[in-house]
Design a protein that fits this description.
heterodimer, A: mainly alpha, elongated, B: mainly beta
């Protein structure tokens, strides 16, 4: 519909600029438009082709022919008449727009870009730029398109893809051009970590640390590598160093506290997790670990932390775990009825979450 | 004045005890165990791994330490697996008639060597359609000779000990063949009628035909959730050589699971044996004995179902003994990596709390896969230590996670007043460990371990011993079952629940071993399953003691 309106406007403009169209060609053009209205696209194409033979310098005829092919989704066939239309009417935005779409649809992203740039078609331009390996430019154009249509799922999808490509491009450059820098080793470590190659990832991080021992975040990531392979002694060592380096970093304090918890050092874990909680209050994971660490020494504190987890998490699996932990505390205190009702809550949340969980393939 | 003298004497004695234990620890610079050859044992656990990754291949096999001929020396029974073809076609045969796939009984000779007596004992035939798994030992007919029950993927077999060095397959008469995929089993007297009953765990509703691989690029064994769960079996001993399947009537079959390990203890002190089942990748089961022939599964309500962070665990092996000397049996459950082995501490009043982190297992076991497990006092200091045989389920696990290993050495964790710390087990040899049985193989007062591993000969971890004192008690029930299974034995403040069951697929030395530290005498209290109570005072340490159930209640 938009196309049709645009084409009508253009038709009017072009008529005034171009040499007059012979009456036979005009009749065929009209016949083609009628066929299009009847949705008889084959007949429309046949009429426009005949009109083009009779009026080879009339841009409007080639535009109509290209547009009819696009409506038929025959993008390959649309490209030659639209190219001719561009030759005849190089200043016509709609011709560039249609040619840009047709070229993009056929995979000629790089060729589509200049046409889409002329008409500032940000969304399609962004897509073409992704395909042409220009993710940085794509991000800018897709963000511009999203500013106009913030809830367009296609645009959101392509923006996320462009972001990934941009990150991957930067990473490729980092790894190939600067492999023996701290950041190069850090990036390599991240890649290996994702592939669950923990010992190899640890080596990369250790090399990065040799090069820049004070780089914030390195020890946090190395600690997570050790934690993922359940090497809690080494994980705690790294988290401790990171917490020293960044005493205001709540995540470092949480990770350190959790590693101490895994090592059974409940008192030290409680202290560190309390520190993390004070740096960034109301982090459910921190509160849950704090409750586990304090359960034996300070059940009151543990109960309070678990109640807060439940308040924050509502019916998530972590809320279920919090109910279970509360049941453990109350069972130990001999409050069997309370424990039983908490077990019931745990079961309810478990069943709720298992219903929502994706089924195994 | 004399009071003061006594206090001083007690203090000196305490100081002396402490320094002796410290000295012992100092002297213990060499490993606790020595990996020793089992002379005369040429058994190889042939699990026959294939490219089809049939799940049964990675699960065997059991080992039992028993004195089948009552000569005072522990003998060894080893369960073999079978020949799995690649692929396996019908009719299914695991070629168990071939000697390479036989189960084996090795009689211990006086010089510590072993003689293969399988054929003469009548144990050679294991059934071609049976792929071997585990073993349980108990004197189900109270004739004084231990009988052997072998679990299989297929049909299980009960061998009656004829008392003359031979066994007879009495499965059909006894009615205990089971079926499906049986794993661990154990004899217990759940109704305290003096006759041993039988509990069998079953893993999955699985068959060769239903088998599949998981992992598209790197095919491997599928997790248990890919197959339907199944029920465990409880057989009641009628006392006439036959058993009745009471799985449904007792409530045991009301719960379907992925049963692997099983362990027994009376966790709530009501005088009746309860049952713990280690389930793979789901909640664990704790069957509370209702004392009327029925059980109620209470693991979640009791706090023995999940890890301390509320996660499912891949329970494999289990030991049910009191590790912190508070008189209440606790649970140690082995499992897959990235979760430590779980300790369910018995808090009393029938409740447990998961304390794997508090006890030190978070630092000890997060990267390992544990199977056979025992809580035994290996250094005789009065605290039960942990020994775990290890090895991942996947024979290609390194391709999935390069920080893990298919073959691992065992874990020895010494118990320091309730906190476990890793110690040198005496072997760095990595194996795909599975079964483990615990007992004093050379009767020196120090507990040894015999373990099985896939594709290899069994390992003997022989305890080097030391200077601390010990006491080993053999029970002979009269009104209670003859093995005394189910008795609660208290020695110098330490409690053991009498059972040969625990670990994974395996059966332990039924004698009860106590480390006494520096104590040269022991006070003993026994509560028999019959209800009889017996107390013995000032018993000399460092001896094997046979205690017969008194006629008095």
């Amino acid at each position: 519909m938009i196309h049709a309106l645009l084409l009508v406007c253009l038709f009017m403009q072009m008529q005034s600029a171009e040499p007059p169209v012979p009456p036979e060609a005009l009749a065929l053009l009209q016949s083609g438009l009628d066929a299009e209205n009847r949705r008889d696209l084959d007949q429309a194409v046949a009429s426009f082709r005949k009109a083009a033979d009779l009026a080879p310098s009339a841009g409007i005829v080639f535009l109509r022919l290209g547009d009819a092919y696009i409506k038929k989704r025959d993008y390959a066939a649309a490209i030659p008449p639209l190219n001719r239309a561009v030759e005849l009417s190089p200043d016509s935005p709609v011709v560039h727009q249609l040619l840009g779409y047709a070229l993009l649809a056929e995979g000629y992203a790089a060729k589509a870009i200049p046409h889409l740039e002329i008409v500032h078609e940000h969304g399609a331009l962004g897509v073409a730029q992704i395909e042409a390996g220009l993710p940085a430019e794509a991000v800018a154009n897709l963000q511009a398109a999203l500013a106009k249509s913030p809830d367009d799922p296609d645009l959101l999808y392509y923006l996320s893809r462009a972001g990934t490509l941009l990150s991957s491009q930067a990473l490729d450059k980092l790894l190939s051009a600067f492999p023996d820098t701290a950041r190069g080793h850090q990036a390599a470590g991240q890649n290996l970590f994702v592939m669950k190659m923990f010992p190899e990832a640890a080596k990369e991080y250790q090399r990065a640390l040799e090069l820049r021992p004070d780089l914030p975040g390195l020890r946090l990531e190395l600690g997570q590598v050790f934690a993922a392979s359940s090497n809690w002694e080494k994980a705690a060592e790294q988290f401790r160093e990171e917490a020293k380096l960044q005493p205001g970093n709540a995540e470092a304090a949480y990770r350190f506290g959790d590693a101490l918890l895994q090592l059974g050092k409940m008192k030290e874990a409680t202290e560190e997790l309390r520190r993390s909680d004070s740096l960034r209050p109301d982090m459910p994971e921190t509160l849950y670990s704090l409750a586990r660490a304090a359960a034996a020494s300070d059940p009151g504190m543990a109960e309070h932390a678990l109640a807060r987890v439940i308040e924050l998490e509502k019916e998530s699996p972590l809320a279920g775990q919090a109910y279970l932990a509360l049941a453990g505390i109350h069972r130990k205190q001999g409050k069997t009825q309370q424990a039983a009702s908490e077990i019931q809550e745990y079961r309810r949340i478990q069943s709720l979450n298992s219903r929502h969980a994706p089924t195994k393939q | 004045m004399s009071g003061l003298r006594n206090t001083k004497a007690a203090l000196l004695s305490l100081l002396f005890s402490v320094s002796l234990i410290a000295q012992e620890a100092k002297l213990k610079s060499e490993p606790m165990f020595q990996l020793s050859p089992l002379k005369g044992v040429n058994f190889v656990l042939r699990n026959s791994p294939t490219s089809r990754k049939y799940l049964i291949e990675t699960m065997p096999g059991g080992v039992a330490l028993l004195d089948y001929n009552n000569d005072g020396l522990l003998d060894i029974f080893l369960v073999n697996a079978g020949h799995v073809r690649d692929p396996m076609n019908t009719p299914i045969s695991f070629d168990r008639h071939e000697p390479a796939y036989w189960n084996r009984l090795y009689r211990q000779n006086k010089d510590g060597t072993f003689t293969d007596v399988t054929e003469q004992a009548g144990l050679a035939s294991a059934g071609d359609t049976n792929y071997g798994m585990g073993v349980a030992v108990g004197d189900y007919d109270n004739d004084g000779f231990p009988d052997i029950y072998v679990t299989n993927f297929g049909k299980n077999i009960l061998y009656h000990n004829n008392g003359d060095g031979t066994f007879t397959d009495v499965t059909a008469k006894a009615g205990v063949a089971g079926g499906g995929w049986s794993v661990s089993a154990g004899f217990l007297d759940y109704d305290n009628d003096g006759k041993l009953d039988l509990f069998v765990t079953r893993y999955l509703d699985w068959s060769i035909e239903k088998s599949k691989t998981c992992g598209s690029e790197k095919p491997t064994y599928c997790p248990p959730g890919e197959f339907p769960a199944t029920t465990n079996i409880l057989y009641h001993n009628r006392g006439n050589g036959t058993f009745e399947d009471v799985s449904v009537a007792s409530g045991i079959a009301a719960k379907k699971g992925h049963g692997l390990g099983v362990a027994f203890a009376d966790y709530d002190g009501d005088g009746y044996t309860d049952i713990f089942v280690a389930n793979d990748a789901m909640e664990q089961f704790l069957f509370h004995n209702n004392r009327d022939g029925t059980f109620t599964e209470t693991a979640l309500d009791s706090g023995a179902a999940l890890t301390s962070n509320g996660k499912m665990l891949s329970g494999m092996g289990a030991a049910f003994q009191d590790y912190d000397n508070d008189g209440l049996p606790d649970l140690l459950v082995t499992e897959l990596p990235h979760q430590p082995y779980i300790v369910f501490h018995n808090d009393g009043r029938g409740s447990f709390s998961a304390q794997e982190l508090e006890t030190g297992f978070g630092a000890l076991s997060g990267r390992s896969s544990g199977w056979g497990v025992g809580l035994e006092d290996f250094d005789n200091d009065g605290w039960k230590d942990a020994f775990v045989v290890q090895g991942h389920v996947f024979d290609n696990v390194e391709m999935y996670d390069s920080s893990l290993r298919y073959k691992e050495p065992p874990l020895l964790a010494l118990n320091h007043q309730g906190h476990f710390e890793k110690a040198d087990a005496g072997s760095d040899v990595a194996v795909a460990g599975r079964g483990a049985a615990f007992g004093d193989l050379n009767n020196d007062g120090w507990m040894d371990v015999v373990a099985t591993s896939l594709g290899e000969r069994p390992q003997l971890y022989l305890n080097r011993g030391g200077k601390l004192h010990w006491l080993t008690i053999a029970l002979r029930g009269k009104r209670s079952n003859r093995d005394g299974y189910g008795a609660r034995v208290l020695v110098n403040g330490q409690v053991r629940f009498a059972t040969a069951t625990g670990s994974y697929l395996s059966s332990n030395d039924k004698r009860l071993h106590f480390g006494l530290g520096s104590a040269e005498t022991a006070n003993i209290e026994i509560r028999w399953p019959s209800g009889a109570h017996q107390a013995l005072r000032n018993i000399k340490a460092d001896q094997f003691l046979m205690i017969e159930e008194s006629d008095q209640p």
